[in-house]
Amino acid sequence: MTGVALGLVLGSALMHATWNLVAKRTQAGQPFLFLAYVIGALAYTPFAIAILVIGRPQLGWIALVFVAMAVVLQTVYFATLTTGYRHGDLSLVYPIARATGPLLATVGAIAVLGERPSFLAICGALAIVAGAFVLTGDPRSLRARGAGLAVGYALATGVVIALYTLWDKTAVSLVLIPPLIYDWMTIGGQAITVAPVALRRRAEVREVWDTQRGSVFFVGIVSRLSYLLMLVALSISPVSYVAPARETGILFGTLLGARVLSEGEGRRRLIGATGMLFGIIALALG
């Protein structure tokens, strides 16, 4: 991975962990997400129009197919992630969700693509599983602590992450959709998808706008900038390097959850997140 790509990925990871902190603190639900989608789409619009007018990218029906599926995957991702936050701590949900994606992508490559990872990569996968176990603690205590449901949503989020990472890599590298246009169309599609729910909950949308407007702007803009950086990195580097490297956000998220939100068991969770990070690095090197 080049220095430029690594810088893009690390910046993306830090931004991702930061907006997740804000989403956790605001207990973001569908009304919040709808407003964040709209703000993200509007923030991109001038740049997207400039690219369309000046660059004139060739966007055929295949590009629309990729965008449509991206809308579905990203909408499911935000739904499962925010639901997990409503049931568990940031420093529990975030690391598990973000680390599961690369692990599942490796399993999928073995089962579907016939890839044979090295011994180092297998060790990395095991390290991720071990880190997840450390983070969740004694499985028998999950129900007592009320964290079992949060872990379930975190794992579901990881599945979606694995799917959309491979999908997005194909979109920007093979189909050659400009990253900003791809994300702009995707976030606009998400806003349209969630709009019927928002209309039925107009009072809640109005309340969120009145009381959490600053957080809505922050999440709407920073979440899109974070993902745009990753898409650019995907367009110039292999997904097997970009996806694992972006999971440095695991440590950022764990530290933020433990320090800023004062979530308990910070030392144990940091150890687990560190194990996950080493596992992801091993996957990349292997």
Task: Give a description of the structure.
The structure is a single chain. The chain is mainly α and 286 residues long. 85% of the residues lie in helices and 0% in strands. It contains 13 helices and no strands.
Order of helices and strands: HHHHHHHHHHHHH
The radius of gyration over CA amounts to 18 Å
Low-confidence stretches: none
End-to-end C-alpha gap = 14 Å
Detail the topology: elements first, then pairings.
Elements: H1 3-25, H2 30-54, H3 61-87, H4 90-113, H5 119-136, H6 142-145, H7 148-173, H8 179-200, H9 202-211, H10 213-236, H11 239-246, H12 249-259, H13 266-285
Structure at a glance:
The chain is mainly α and 286 residues long.
Name the features.
286 residues, 13 helices, 85% helix, 0% strand, mainly alpha, globular
